[in-house]
Write a structure and sequence with these properties.
The protein is globular. The protein starts with a strand and ends in a 14-residue tail after the last helix. A hairpin with a 4-residue loop joins β6 and β7. The longest helix has 20 residues. Helices cover about 45% and strands about 20% of the residues. By secondary structure, the chain is α/β, with parallel strands linked by helices.
Length: about 325
């Protein structure tokens, strides 16, 4: 079945169009990302701004053209942290549904976000692979920490640590001051520590990191002039390299970060907070590297879309 998945996140709105077989094999046909910053100022105001909502709706209109052109049989959208947290989140969901006829749009809870992310990130691993693995998904409004093995999740938590949220909360200077960076790191460390019991921290033996911060780290570490999924996906970035990249990026102004090879300019405002969150996660779990993955919640949601009941109750076709 050809499926389309739209991930409407706090920082970006992303599209995946893929063919999914009965056996769960997925072949990507189209992937797009646009930084739309839906959660801009949400931490201060508690609501999604009109400007931010319009940016997302305009992007959805572009994606709808792609979805129709690709002849998709099933199209779903998942809305995550920003919409969960906003007082006007349900109103925005209604606008998305009204504008995007045929798009099965829903707000998902943090536990489902974590489960779909883990499924996407580990989808290429053998089901018998029993290595306890941490999946780190740094988002704009939340960070999901998921532990599991053999395709099964044993622990997950959605923490209120996100690159948009924490950049706005702590990094007022350009470049950020050492004091701001310390306060940011302390906040993230305390947030993680409250959320993850000690016994869970000792479980993982490997870490996979997904989403924009992780892929940016991979591309920067590889010094790529042009982003390449083939090169970034599966690339290992050590904790030492993450710290070195953090030190480099934090010393630059936002304008200078926009010129860094491997970093998309739209991610320059929030990448420092994102790298802090990866570093703090690795330190919490006493791990020394991440494997960067381009497979995340989009892939997990696509694999499940073929089995998800349609909004009118009609079962999705199986072939």
């Amino acid at each position: 079945m050809r499926v389309a998945v739209v991930d409407i996140g706090t920082n970006s709105t992303r599209l995946l169009v893929a063919d999914v077989s009965d056996g769960g094999h997925l072949t990507e046909r189209e992937r797009r990302t646009k930084v739309t910053r839906l959660g801009d100022k949400l931490d201060q105001t508690g609501v999604l701004s009109d400007e931010a909502m319009e940016r997302v709706l305009a992007t959805l209109a572009e994606y709808r053209t792609v979805i129709e052109r690709e002849g998709t049989e099933r199209a779903v959208a998942v809305l995550t942290s920003a919409v969960r947290d906003a007082a006007n989140g349900e109103d925005f969901l209604a606008r998305v549904r009204a504008q995007s006829d045929g798009l099965d749009a829903r707000v998902i809870a943090g536990d489902e976000e974590a489960r779909l992310t883990f499924r996407g990130a580990t989808s290429e691993r053998a089901a018998r692979d029993a290595t306890p693995t941490l999946v780190i998904d740094v988002g704009g409004g939340s960070t999901e920490l998921v532990v599991g093995s053999g395709g099964e999740v044993s622990f997950h938590v959605s923490t209120q640590a996100g690159v948009v949220r924490h950049t706005e909360r702590h990094l007022a200077s350009d470049p950020p001051t050492p004091s701001e960076l310390r306060v940011l790191a302390d906040d993230v460390r305390e947030t993680y520590a409250r959320a993850v019991p000690g016994r869970v921290r000792r479980t993982p033996r490997a870490a996979i990191a997904v989403a924009g911060t992780a892929t940016s780290l991979g591309a920067i570490d590889l010094d790529l002039e042009h982003y390449s999924t083939d090169l970034v996906h599966g690339h290992v970035v050590s904790l030492t390299a993450c710290r070195r990249i953090l030190e480099r990026l934090a010393a630059l102004t936002e304008a200078e970060r926009r010129e860094v090879r491997g970093l998309h300019p739209d991610r320059a405002p929030t990448i420092v907070a994102g790298v802090v969150m990866v570093v703090e996660a690795l330190e919490l779990f006493d791990l020394d590297a991440i494997v960067v993955s381009d497979h995340d919640i989009l892939r997990g949601a696509a694999l499940e879309a073929v089995h998800r009941p349609r909004p009118n109750g009609e079962a999705a076709p199986t072939s």
